Amino acid sequence: MTADQLHPIPLWVDAYVTQIHGADTPPPAALTLKLNHTRQVAANAREIAQQLDWPAHAVRLGEALGWLHDVGRFAQFAEFGHYHDATSFNHGWRGTEIVADAGLLASLSAISQACLLDGIRHHNAKTLPAEIAASSLPYLKLIRDADKLDIFRVVIEGLERDGFQELAAMWPHIDLHGPINPRLLQDIRAHQQADLLHVRSLADFLVLQASWMHTLNYAPTAHLAQERGVLDTLAAYLPGDPAADNFMNEMRDVLAQQARRTLSTAGIAHAG
Ligand SMILES: [Fe+2]
């Protein structure tokens, strides 16, 4: 992707959001927050790709994916007034349709178009899909890392603002003061991930966030999570008991291991 091909993409996203809510009134806070998330994820994707030493065309493609990954969210909010996939639609799939239909990618090579569309489609999948083009995979890994880094930011800002009261508004069944569900720790230790069904308290949610350290794909993402003090902040809001302390120490080790991974440019050979 050239600089001239990247340039219109953020402008298109802004125009799309304006078109969705109308030009006469300022956008609602929920849309502004999502637009800010989009901007941060694009910046994270660029930063991680640069630290991976990807060539400039690939860094631009990664940044473009950051701009486009959550386009489905804007349509979701316009149609349903919330961001809950289970009661509306899969925002990754819808985003793919919106971007494909907009004709925004017409000047890109077929491979670059596929990298963007595959990345949008699967950025929010529970795990990396088994069947995906080898050329799309590095970008999918990039967007998933860039997205998680910004979700850490959102959670940390919420914790520091008011103990993340927002979580109770999003998930009414959540107990902001409840203990850690031992089942959650067991599952994470056994499978490196856990089911949202076992998340009943804010502490559970923070444990789940910490467990994402297992899923980071690239060393620079782990470095950035270390630099931003993600685990220390999450730990500060967990109950000070031995089970929580032990778990967070395990996650610190996992994050340190992830940060020591070898840098890789595999799959970034194509031009365009
Ligand atoms: Fe998303």
Structure description:
The protein is mainly alpha-helical and 272 residues long. The protein folds into two domains: 3-145, Hypothetical protein af1432 (Orthogonal Bundle); 162-259, no CATH class. The protein is built from 14 helices and no strands. Helix 3 packs across helix 8, helix 4 (56-68) crosses helix 8 (137-162) and helix 12 (219-227) packs across helix 14. The longest helix is centred in the middle third of the chain and has 26 residues, at 137-162. It is globular. The protein starts with a helix and ends in a 13-residue tail after the last helix. The model has no long low-confidence stretch (mean pLDDT 92). The structure holds fe (ii) ion.
Give a brief outline of the structure:
This protein has 14 helices and no strands. It has 272 residues and is mainly alpha-helical.
CATH class placement of the largest domain? Mainly Alpha
Gyration radius, rounded: 19 Å
Average of the residue pLDDT scores: 92
Q: What level of helicity do the residues show? A: 55-70%
The helix/strand series, from N terminus to C terminus, equals: HHHHHHHHHHHHHH
The total of beta strands comes to 0
Topology at a glance:
Blueprint: H1 3-6, H2 8-21, H3 29-51, H4 56-68, H5 71-80, H6 91-102, H7 110-122, H8 137-162, H9 165-170, H10 182-191, H11 202-211, H12 219-227, H13 230-236, H14 242-259
Helix pairs in contact: 2-5, 3-4, 3-8, 4-7, 4-8, 5-6, 6-7, 7-8, 11-13, 12-14
Bound molecules: fe (ii) ion.
The site of fe (ii) ion has 5 residues, from loops.
